[in-house]
Amino acid sequence: QHEEYDEKRNIEVLHKYYIESMPIMKEQFLIASIEGKIPKEQLRQQLDRVQVDFKNKYFAVGVISLDYSQISNDKFKENTMLLPISAQKILDDVMMNICECISFRYIDNVIIICNFDNKEIIKSLINGFNEVCRNFKKIIDGNISIGLGRVCVKFDDIYLSYNDAKSALEY
Predict the structure, then answer these.
(1) Which residue of 2, 26, 105, 110 sits 20 to 30 Å from the alpha carbon of 67, by its own alpha carbon?
(2) Which value, to the nearest 10 degrees, does the dihedral of the CA atoms of residues 155, 160, 164, 166 take?
(3) Where are the beta strands (DSSP E) in the chain?
(4) Region of residue 108 (left: phi > 0; alpha: psi -120 to 50; beta: else)
(5) Helix 83-95 / helix 122-140 crossing angle, nearest 10 deg
(6) Residues 46, 145: Cα–Cα separation, whole Å
(7) Is the four-CA dihedral 24, 30, 33, 35 of positive or negative sign?
(8) Residue 118 and residue 125: Cα distance in Å, rounded?
(9) CA 56, 44, 94: angle at the middle one, nearest 5?
(10) pTM, full prediction
(11) 40-72: per-residue pLDDT in tens?
(12) Percentage above 90 pLDDT, the chain
């Protein structure tokens, strides 16, 4: 029992656990951000804590919705849990050439937070999302839809963009 206390007191061990849990903390922070659950006055500090550094002025959220009923590739029909991972990989490969972005899975969707310094990039974002849909169709032989939310000037308003993106998927 004494050893157990020593380990919990050991700053190095705790720091190692902290670093190992960083990806989960980052994802939880991003989910709370798009849901609008973090008080604005805490957002900056939390961004630093989870080591997310958005360098650009503008933000927009994209939401990928997968249509599981339209998958005709037998391998993926049997392994539907791999579809969001595949969609995220395709998304990351395309979007990293367009802007700074962070993607993560949330419930049955893949979320992407895009960060850019020029509003003119919106057309490129839309073209990129169209390419993601085409690539997913080619590779998986399935359909996805991507909703894009409004452009925000402050990370505080990211939840508004997320809500727009979800609404866009309903049409």
Answers:
(1) 26
(2) 90
(3) 58-67, 100-106, 109-116, 143-148
(4) alpha
(5) 140
(6) 31
(7) negative
(8) 12
(9) 40
(10) 0.88
(11) 888 888 888 888 888 999 999 999 999 877 777
(12) 63
Both tokens assigned to 127 = 């073209």
98, two tokens: 């367009």
CA nearest neighbour of 106 among 63, 146, 47: 63
Longest dimension (CA), the chain: 61
What amino acid is encoded at 3 in this protein?
Answer: E
Backbone φ, ψ for residue 78 (5° rounding): -85, -15
What Rg, from alpha-carbon coordinates, does the chain have?
18
135 within 8 A of 124, measured Cβ to Cβ? no
Distance, in Å, from the CA atom of 117 to the CA atom of 99, rounded to the nearest integer, reads: 9
Nearest to 121 by CA among 57, 33, 165, 30: 57
Q: How confident is the model at residue 5 (pLDDT cuts 50, 70, 90)?
A: low
Residue 60's identity, in one-letter code, is A
Lookup: tokens for 70: 């339209």
Cβ pair 144, 67 in contact under 8 A: yes
Contact 134, 146 (CB under 8 A): no
Exposure of 101 in the CB half-sphere (CA atoms within 13 A)? 26
The side-by-side arrangement of strands in the sheet containing 109-116 is 100-106, 109-116, 58-67, 143-148
